[in-house]
Predict the 3D structure of the following.
Amino acid sequence: MRRLTWVLSLLLLGTAGLTPVRAQAVQEQLRRIELQTAQDPLQGQWVKKEEGQKTFQWGGWNSYSALWLKDDDNSRATADAVQRILINDSRLWGRVEFEDGSSFYGRLRWLQYGFDMGPGAARPVLRNEKVDLDLAYYDTHIFDDYSLRIGRQYIREGRGITLNGNFDGLSLDWNSGRWSFNTFLVKSLTNDPDIDANVVDPNRYYASGNVSYLNDEGERYFGYYLQERDNSDQVVAFTGSPPIGLDYDANYYALGTSGDFTQNLSYYGEGIMERGSVVALVPANKRIDINAAAAYTELAYHPNWRGHPVFTSEYAVGGGDSSRLPGINTFNSGANGVDGNFLGFGRYDFGIALNPRLSNLEIIRAGVSWRPWESSKGLETLTIGGKASRYRKNDPLGAISDQQATVANDDIGSGLDLYVGWKPWSDLTVLAQWGKFSPGDAYPAGTRDDTSNLFLNVTYSY
């Protein structure tokens, strides 16, 4: 069974029926699913949708998902605390356009979960399991060249490693020829669980400025600065130590580029430097500097073959630190006097079963997707694909987001993801994913059994 002796009894899912590890693992899986189901499958068509009025459009979708977890603690000898999760995600949106060219968009979300629990495990209680305001923002233009968005909105930096999700605040966009500029000031949502399970009432603020340039060849160069400030005032007490405040303040500096090497070969690259300060456990409440970095690169080869296959290769690395404790947390033991562990507040899918954060992690991935029956009526959208992954620690002595990988060894393991996606009708989408993770020597003996997940989703849009 997964353990973490340092973490408090304040669980991410708010229940004493799950160990801290499993609580965090379940929440991370739900975050991964959220990435896949947050966008309307027919979003590109709603611009043309009119319900008898030129100034008003509306729509929605119902998404039904099931996730089966097998040996999520990498041990066949222990019973799985959570065996299956059922998710009903319903969203209803409306958009109003005004005569001056401004508009308002609002979206409600209703989340329901069903859990099949193992022996002796209590059902998790999730704060966002209710009807909630998903998005609500007002768009307008000022001085003709500037676009202003105010309200609850989706924000993403780069590929989403440093930040992505829904936030309250404002954003401003400006385009001038080949140059694009954006800035925003937003705060975290009350009902969203924090990245750190110990933070019960998250209150984080984010401010950013970014710029991008598109040249004649279609190559884009971009850079951004992102500032994160923790105002949650969370205080925790560990056994044998005085109370400390969890106050993680980070600054991210990023440069990146994307484009095409050839007509069939595209690329993306993003490098991130993290600075700031974090609270250390020893000595208690002393702040130490953050000095970390991360990078992500991708190549995509899409030849004009039958079925239009796409071959991808990815490499990602996030810095590590031997004084970091296992799991996802926003404090440091203080042993090294500086925190070299990279921690982003965004989310990117690096594998279905392990589902890791890019923190003290090096990842190599290779994948392919293919539409084998694109000329057959009714099957032209059916897509099959998969990715193979290899995981290693950046610092063998450090921890990763999976709290079980506690052995001082860089071999985390390997993963395999397979999926089938199909859109049989314009308003129906079907997705099936299967993932397996095979632990390496970074896991203690007795916790090196394969873990696998099966995810099924059906989404109906209207």
